[in-house]
Amino acid sequence: MNYKNLVTEFENGILTITINRPKALNALNAQTFSDLKQLFGEDAVKLENLHGVIITGAGSKAFVAGADISEFSSLTAETAKELSQRGHDIFNLIERFPKVVIAAVNGFALGGGCELAMACHMRIAGEKARFGQPEINLGLIPGYGGTQRLVQLVGKGKAMELLVTADMINADEAYRLGLANHVVPIGEEVAKAKEIISKIATKAPIAITNTIKCVNAY
Ligand code: HXC
User: Fold this and answer.
1) How far does residue 52's CA lie from ligand 1's centre (Å)?
2) 117-143 burial, b if ≥16 CB within 10 A, otherwise e?
3) Catalytic center residues
4) Ligand 1: residues within 6 Å at CB?
5) CA-CA distance, 27 to 115, in Å (whole number)?
6) Cβ-count burial of 208 within 10 angstroms (0-12 exposed, 13-18 middle, 19+ buried)?
7) What is the CA(90)–ligand 1 centre distance, in A?
8) Distance from the CA of 196 to the center of ligand 1, in angstroms?
9) Closest-CA residue to 15 (of 209, 203, 153, 201)
10) pLDDT, tens digit, for every residue of 115-134?
11) How many Å separate Cα 152 from the centre of its chain?
12) In this structure, which residue's CA is closest to atom 54 in ligand 1?
């Protein structure tokens, strides 16, 4: 598997994907979206003996700090709609992926980065993780499904507060709200995700795929 902005490792039935643009805090640009579409839409489904997928961010600072803001300046109403639709389509691919997908959140998960983490089936937060939807500061809304997924994860009242204030929350608060499944020491996010997938690997795979489908139908 060859991608411009993703580094992948497939070991013991676990596919680990690292979003690799650390200088831009792993912001999701068009190329990264295209890589994710190729991976989740084409390549990963063909992997034999795949038990689960982990998404993390390169470097020590960020999971993903959002959509790449530098690509926004030339948008028109029409191309902005297309950009939002592209994000929806790719995040839906992740949410509907037949194997468990876990976000290992190793730093900032902001805007589209928080939306990406929420499209995953679970989130492991490192102690340094920060979650937030700061789009309102840019005159935007979370345009990749975050308004819906945040409500599902933390409830309407708290989601509304986070969305309209752009407040950033730390890992402990994310855990308290149900946004993060676990909080682990810095650097242990991927290991914890691997531990969970290894447990899942001992269970019935078809039942797991159908469980994902049923939970998504909620
Ligand atoms: C492009 C980004 C970026 C982003 C950071 N960078 N976030 N580039 N898109 N979303 C770049 C910076 O420009 C900078 O590049 C480098 O990463 C390091 O960032 P700094 O700001 O210098 O770091 P720091 O001071 O530590 O602040 C970290 C931060 C801040 C708090 C995470 O970078 C930040 O607020 N970023 C924007 C977060 C955001 O608003 N996200 C939501 C985007 S909108 P240089 O070249 O200067 O070193 C979105 C909408 C989705 O996601 C839906 C659309 C339809």
Assistant:
1) 29
2) bbbbbbbbbbebbbbbbbbeeeebebb
3) 115, 135
4) 24-25, 27, 65-70, 83-84, 87, 108, 110-112, 134-135, 138, 140, 142-144
5) 12
6) middle
7) 21
8) 31
9) 201
10) 999 999 999 999 999 999 99
11) 15
12) 143
User: What atom of ligand 1 comes closest to residue 142's alpha carbon?
Assistant: 53
Tell me the pairing of strands 122-126 and 100-105. Answer: parallel
Structure tokens at 157: 């009242």
- Amino acid identity of residue 165, one-letter, is T
Query: Model's pTM, two decimal places?
Result: 0.98
Residue 156 alpha carbon to ligand 1 centre in Å: 27
The b/e string for 80-116 (b: 16+ C-beta within 10 A; e otherwise) is eeebbebbeebbebbbebebbbbbbbbbbbbbbbbbb
Q: Whose CA is nearest to atom 36 of ligand 1?
A: 65
> Would you state the structure tokens that stand for residue 170, as one six-digit string?
């730390």
pLDDT tens sequence across 130-173: 999 999 999 999 999 999 999 999 999 999 999 999 999 999 99
Smallest Cα–Cα separation from 10: which of 38, 30, 39? Answer: 39
Contacts of 186 (CB under 8 A, 6+ apart): 60, 106, 126, 127, 128
